[in-house]
């Protein structure tokens, strides 16, 4: 599953009367391969997925693929310009699409590779005869190294599109009839990895999703190292860091004490995890603090990795002994609600964005910021244009949110000296009678129940 506009963007480039180079990149988990598959349908296309091999073998493999797909009698000792040029010139007059998947391996092995493409495209091919699509799932390489390696040729790229993970709002659009509790739970596990959405329906529950994944693990086995970037050479240390992060240890000092890793090295390891989009550093501005004190902590950004390091990694031996259902009942059934508390505020923030977009607020939102409160009585703040602040508290787990939750939020506002008189409370399970009555008559207090929340 992917966004229709991403495919349409590439189709629009192909439909031009010019020759073009486009770059498509992102995780395979967000529909990268699906977009490519649907783009090449009904087109005269040459597709080649490069490998991490020597340049000479790469050329040999490419020439063989060209022959297998087009029957072009090309010898592998010819250079790329001749190999590709023969395909462009010796076939029909229809516009051709040439896809180089995992193209980072082509450029790493031969930095002048783009020169061959550019020469063919703009000097030796008639206008409107061909489009190159360069595809990569190495996000870090595309964003950090690609431009440096291809140099001035980067100016000849017609379009660059990154496939991003789906937001909670987009997930809800895919499954509008799914109960909000299950939507939050499922998104907290698979996140915005839309490639997994094909196996989900509106009737899928958190329990059924998890147990099915566990059953697959029992058959295929589980290697945590596969969740880590290939270039990581010290999985022992990274696994240790991720286990503690998944357990909620997010402060640098606390991680240092728990892991016994040197602080300087720990910072380097965390930086590597951040660069690979696995971990994120969250900074919370202290609203109302004259010194604008910043509180920073780390957490696992990738929801699938967060879930596995929280529940599977520490108990993997028991999974083999207990089986999927018994494992779920013992380790997850009663712990999952607390785990989901960290994800629910993301849905609540998305609702504020939707209300703003639909002009359903009587003020304009200037910012929505995560807020660090040591007692977790406040999850985020809404800053209105003009400076007014709303403190927000979210609760996912049953039972109903009680009046005590309001008192905790109010105390946190005073303790942290937040300049606001407004408190909004979000609860996926609703509110008890006392809080409901209080909220209905108290100015500045707004109660938002889970099933009433809209994201689209």
Query: What structural class do the secondary elements suggest?
Result: alpha/beta
CATH architecture of the largest domain: 3-Layer(aba) Sandwich
What's the helical proportion of residues? 40-55%
Strand order of the largest sheet: 2-3-4-1-5
Radius of gyration: 26 Å
Label the overall shape.
elongated
Description:
The protein is of the alpha/beta class and about 450 residues long. It has 3 domains: about 5-165, P-loop containing nucleotide triphosphate hydrolases (Rossmann fold, 3-Layer(aba) Sandwich); about 205-340, Arc Repressor Mutant, subunit A (Orthogonal Bundle), CATH 1.10.10.10; about 345-450, 3-Layer(aba) Sandwich (Trna Endonuclease, Chain: A, domain 1), CATH 3.40.1350. It has 20 helices and 12 strands. Strands 2-3-4-1-5 form a 5-stranded parallel β-sheet. It has a 5-stranded mixed β-sheet with strand order 8-9-10-11-12, sandwiched between helices. The longest helix is centred in the N-terminal third of the chain and has 16 residues, at about 55-70. The protein starts with a helix and ends in a 7-residue tail after the last strand. The mean pLDDT is about 85.
What's the gist of this structure?
With 456 residues, this protein is α/β, with parallel strands linked by helices. The protein is built from 20 helices and twelve strands. It is elongated, with a radius of gyration of 26 Å.
């Amino acid at each position: 599953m992917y966004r229709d506009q991403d495919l349409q963007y590439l189709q629009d480039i192909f439909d031009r009367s010019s020759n073009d180079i486009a770059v498509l990149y992102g995780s395979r988990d967000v529909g990268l391969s699906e977009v490519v598959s649907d783009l090449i349908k009904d087109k005269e296309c040459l597709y080649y997925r490069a490998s991490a091999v020597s340049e000479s073998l790469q050329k040999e493999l490419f020439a063989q693929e060209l022959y297998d797909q087009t029957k072009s009698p090309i010898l592998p000792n010819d250079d790329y310009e001749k190999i590709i040029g023969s395909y462009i010139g010796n076939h029909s007059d229809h516009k051709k699409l040439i896809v180089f998947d995992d193209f980072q391996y082509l450029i790493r092995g031969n930095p002048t590779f783009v020169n061959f493409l550019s020469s063919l495209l703009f000097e030796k091919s008639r206008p409107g005869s061909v489009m190159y699509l360069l595809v990569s799932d190495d996000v870090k390489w595309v964003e950090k190294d690609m431009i440096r390696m291809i140099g001035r040729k980067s100016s000849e790229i017609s379009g660059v599109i990154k496939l991003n993970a789906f937001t909670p709002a987009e997930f809800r659009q895919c499954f509008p009839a799914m109960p909000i509790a299950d939507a939050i739970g499922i998104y907290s596990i698979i996140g915005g990895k839309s490639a997994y959405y094909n196996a989900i329906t509106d009737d899928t529950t958190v329990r059924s999703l998890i147990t099915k994944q566990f059953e697959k693990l029992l058959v295929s086995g589980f290697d945590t190292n596969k969740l880590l970037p290939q270039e990581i050479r010290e999985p022992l240390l990274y696994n240790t860091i991720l286990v503690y992060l998944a357990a909620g240890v997010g402060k640098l000092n606390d991680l240092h004490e728990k892991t016994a890793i040197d602080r300087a090295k720990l910072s380097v390891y965390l930086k590597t995890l951040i660069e690979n989009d696995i971990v994120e550093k969250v900074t919370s501005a202290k609203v109302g603090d004259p010194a604008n004190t910043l509180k920073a902590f780390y957490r696992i950004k990738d929801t699938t990795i967060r879930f596995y390091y929280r529940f599977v990694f520490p108990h993997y031996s028991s999974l083999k002994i207990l089986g999927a259902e018994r494992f779920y009942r013992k380790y997850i059934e009663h712990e999952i609600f607390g785990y989901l508390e960290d994800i629910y505020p993301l849905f609540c923030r998305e609702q504020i964005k939707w209300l703003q977009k639909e002009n359903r607020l009587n003020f304009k939102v200037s910012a929505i910021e995560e807020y660090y409160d040591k007692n977790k009585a406040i999850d985020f703040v809404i800053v209105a244009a003009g400076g007014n602040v709303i403190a927000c508290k979210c609760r996912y787990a049953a039972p109903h949110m009680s009046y005590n939750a309001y008192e905790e939020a109010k105390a946190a506002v005073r303790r942290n000296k937040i300049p606001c008189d407004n408190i909004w409370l979000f609860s996926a399970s609703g509110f008890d009678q006392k809080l409901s009555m209080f909220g209905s008559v108290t100015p500045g207090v707004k109660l938002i129940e889970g099933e009433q929340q809209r994201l689209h």
